[in-house]
Amino acid sequence: MATRDSSTERGRITVDGFDVESVVDRDHIESWTPSFREEAGRGRRYYAWQRFKRNRLALVGAGIIGVMVFVAVFARPISLPGGVPLLGGETVQPFSLAPADPAEQDILTGHTAPTLASITSSDPLGLHVLGTDWAGRDILSRIMFGGRWSISLGFIAVAVALLIGVPLGAIAGYYGGYVDSVIMRVVDMLYAFPFIVLAIAVIAILGRGYWELVFALVAVGWLAYARIIRGEVLSVKQNEYVTAARALGARDRSVITRHILPNAMAPVIVQATLSVGTTVLTAAALGFIGLGLSPATAEWGVMLNVEQDSIARGRWWAGVFPGLAIFLFVMAINLVGDGIRDAFDPQGEADGSDGGFR
Amino acid sequence: MAMLEVEDLNVRFYTEDGVVKATNDLSYEIEEGERFGVVGESGAGKSVTSLAVMRLIEEPGVIESGSIRFKGRDLLELDRDEVREIRGNEIAMIFQDAETALNPAYTVGEQIAEAIRLHLSYDDEAARDRTIELLERVGIPDPVERYSDYPHEFSGGMQQRAVVAMALSCDPDLIIADEPTTALDVTIEAQILDLLADVTESSDTAIQLITHDLGVVAEFCDRLMVMYAGHPVEMAPVEDVYYDPQHPYTVGLMSSIPRIGDDRDRLQTIPGRMPDLIELPSGCNFYPRCPYAEEACTRREPALVDVDTGDPADATVHEQQSAACLAHTGELRGELDYTVTVDDGREREGSASVPDGGHDDRTEGSQ
Cβ of B35 under 8 Å from any chain A Cβ? Predict the structure, then answer.
């Protein structure tokens, strides 16, 4: 950089003899040349992933979820229904980890207790490791297979709720004014109903069934995301890069999706992860009060429902094991959720004690 | 016809406390390739003016009246799509705080390339090449590797260079630089100003430079406008303003510049502060802080007039020095008696109340 003559005129002091030109013109004094390269550029997601990987509890949680999903998927073979254009009627997943057909009934073996012998046996087939329920159905198989209902309900309901809540919240926060008022008043109104009562009302209207249950869970689930994302958008849109993007002629849509949402999503991702757990719990609760899936399905909450009186009658295994499955999954989700929250919040890690102030 | 013609611009913010009059009958012009400075204290309406030109005034702000003609088209009458075409493409903006003007979620290169893809409809490959070219042009070393760096991996000066590159991306005809060097230290400031001077000279781009640093304006600009409380109070070529300021506020700003080697105990300031833009004082907005204020100042609002003739200022005459002070229309009984001393020993007097001349030789700062 050459000297700036004008800058020396600004004050009353003039410096002579500080010859900047000689620095530029001379040969290098030694072989050292400044290096402007450090390690390759990486985004916040990368650093968040690095922090997440170091969190053992969160990894354990992720492992538990992975195993449970794996078991649920491979519990019984999956055949596509005939109507599907590609691979219709074919079996796409031939493996069968579950020792018995979860729907196979045998009244004679009803309420078989799990015994030490059956657990340690090398060949569990037909021995009912976790016992059987009132209809003689193998509880281990039902839990493995039932994960398909319970776990998928959690993930699908949360995903759909995100798809509704995030755009609505982002629009409310970005445009403000009447749009904001209308959307947020709807949210406030729905919040006025207790969570479970609203879900019950929806099911009472629509009737029982898998997608009806998803709908009920979504109807109450999207509210939280809309609120969180609106608040975040309100603060993110104050950033100068949002004005800068608009000053460069970007459309509203691309300002929201490219510049605002990526910087506003972290708290929503945390909330969504944690609510996969609560959604599974709610689904189980609805199943328990008889508003979930049909009593014949192996969904964990429904299994608890049909065996409501079993513990009182000494048949502890019929209620404990499905309950344990719910507990294990929700706990694992919470561990992962905490891990994600810490990963997105570097300050929490730095002071080590409590998880920041979010 | 000048490239940018702002005429009688009135921007209002309707807040719960009342109506904020952010700019009042503001008129100015910028020629092609001209460097136009806008100076004033915080809250004088400098940034609002530039946002108005970009049509980026947001609720509760409204452009109430006036016109902003860019190359003959009134920007205030264009629809949203047409305005978007102009933003970034023909008028670009450089922001004060480069750190917040860059989105932390994307690499610097992607952000610059976005505007290029949008306006010049380049494909990804071509946009990338042009971005690397731009990064090189603004003096970022290793532009190929720096393309995929995130903003937080840039230093403050580099971030501001990247922001300049973003503004240059589509070869705009006018760059509005809103305090582009305020957040930087002095050496980086000098580099960025050099860079801006280089790129604007090579492509004949006009710059509207908003700043509160009179030193920057002195080095960089051809003409300048001094704003106070949403009003233009003085507009003239830079030399005229510096050697011969004609408005007490300009003089106050200049006497407030701290200098190395100064033997004063305290920094000089202008007493008081900018009035509340909701309830402006009657008459001249500056009189509560003006050492030359008289009773007439509280009653009559001075118009921007040609200081030589006392006739109403004409925004289209660029060589004219105009100021909004009653002294220039002969309505002030006293005189603006200050002197401006320049380093080289020459002394220039504040030639106040020009219609009938008459000087007094009190020195700067004696009030």
Answer: no
Query: What residues does each domain of chain B span?
Result: 4-221, 248-356
Contact B91, B70 (CB under 8 A): yes
pLDDT digit string, tens, across residues A262-294 = 888 888 988 898 888 888 888 888 888 888 787
Local confidence band at A184 (pLDDT 50, 70, 90 cut-offs): very high
- ipTM of predicted complex: 0.75
A147-347 CATH:
1.10.3720.10
d(CA B199, CA B173): 12
φ, ψ of residue A267 in degrees (nearest 5):
-65, -30
In angstroms, rounded to a whole number, what is the distance separating the alpha carbons of residues A343 and A47? 8
Quote the pTM value.
Answer: 0.72
d(Cα B81, Cα B138) in Å, to the nearest integer?
Answer: 30
- How many whole angstroms separate alpha carbon A155 and alpha carbon A150? 9
| Segment A82-136, tens digit of pLDDT | 676 776 667 777 777 777 777 777 766 666 667 666 656 555 555 666 777 777 7
Reported as a single tens digit per residue, the pLDDT across B281-298 is 888 888 888 888 888 888
Is B84 in contact with A249 (Cβ distance < 8 A)? yes
How many CA atoms, within 13 angstroms, populate the side-chain half-sphere of residue A177?
6
Residue A109 CA to residue A135 CA, distance in Å, equals 8
State the first-to-last Cα distance of chain B, in angstroms, to the nearest integer. Answer: 43
Do B229 and B275 meet the contact criterion of CB atoms below 8 Å apart? yes
DSSP code, position A249 = T
Task: Tell me the nearest-neighbour CA distance from A38 into chain B, angstroms.
Answer: 9
Considering just the CA atoms, what is the radius of gyration of chain B in Å?
22
Say if CB B190 and CB A7 are below 8 A apart. Answer: yes
In this structure, what DSSP letter does residue B5 have? Answer: E
Exposed/middle/buried for A218, CB within 10 Å: 0-12, 13-18, 19+? buried
Tell me which residues of chain B, numbers 282 to 341, contact chain A at a CB-CB cutoff of 8 Å. none
Chain A partners within 8 Å of B164 (Cβ): none
Q: Does A196 or A44 have the greater pLDDT score?
A: A196
Instruction: Say which CATH architecture domain B4-221 belongs to.
Output: 3-Layer(aba) Sandwich (3.40)
Chain A residue numbers touching B47 (CB-CB < 8 A): none
Q: Per-domain residue ranges for chain A?
A: 147-347
- A36/B141 touch (CB, cutoff 8 Å), yes or no: yes
What is the DSSP annotation of A157-189? HHHHHHHHHHHHHHHHHHH-HHHHHHHHHHHHH
DSSP letter at B276 equals P
CA–CA dist B147, B135 (Å, integer): 8
Q: Strand ranges (DSSP E) for B71-213? A: 73-74, 91-94, 174-178, 206-211
Q: Residue B15 in contact with residue B218, Cβ under 8 Å?
A: no
How many CB pairs below 8 A link A and B?
112
Nearest chain B residue (CA) to A263: B105
State the sign of the Cα–Cα–Cα–Cα dihedral B117, B119, B122, B127. Answer: negative
More confident residue, A37 or A232: A232
Restricting to B residues 265-284, those with a Cβ less than 8 Å away from any Cβ of A are none
